[in-house]
Amino acid sequence: AHLSIQAMQEGLQVHQMSGFDALKAAELFALPEDVQAVSVIAIGYLGDPSMLHPRMQKPELAERERKEMDTFVFSGIYGRASEIVE
């Protein structure tokens, strides 16, 4: 979390991912046997969307649809919206 916050403070974008080939990552980065990759983080500056492949431009430029925070930020018990989002 701190890395993401600091990167954003520096004007960078952060995207954490799973679903990568951990064995290939271990090979490429020469990870010791006792170290396991469990997540990948892409960090960089936003680029010009017009430089994207046309197939990627549409989702990148589309309006974002977000859930209301009170549907997943809870306090005390599951399902009770936290005061910070009301």
Which tags fit this structure?
86 residues, 12% strand, alpha+beta, 2 strands
Verbal overview:
The protein is an alpha+beta fold. The chain has a domain at 1-47. It is 27% helix and 12% strand. The chain contains three helices and two strands; from the N terminus they run H-E-H-E-H. A two-stranded antiparallel ribbon has the order 1-2. The mean pLDDT is 94.
Nearest-integer average pLDDT: 94
Structural class: alpha+beta
Q: Secondary-structure element order, as H and E?
A: HEHEH
Approximate strand percentage: 5-15%
Please state the overall shape, judged from the principal axes of the Cα atoms.
extended
Name the assembly state.
single chain
The residue fraction in helices comes out at 25-40%
- What is the terminal-to-terminal distance? 23 Å
Low-confidence stretches: none
**How many β-strand runs?**
2
Report Rg.
18 Å
Strand order of the largest sheet: 1-2
Summary, kept brief:
The chain is of the alpha+beta class and 86 residues long.
Write the layout of secondary structure elements.
Elements: H1 2-9, E1 13-17, H2 22-28, E2 40-44, H3 54-61
Antiparallel strand pairs: 1-2
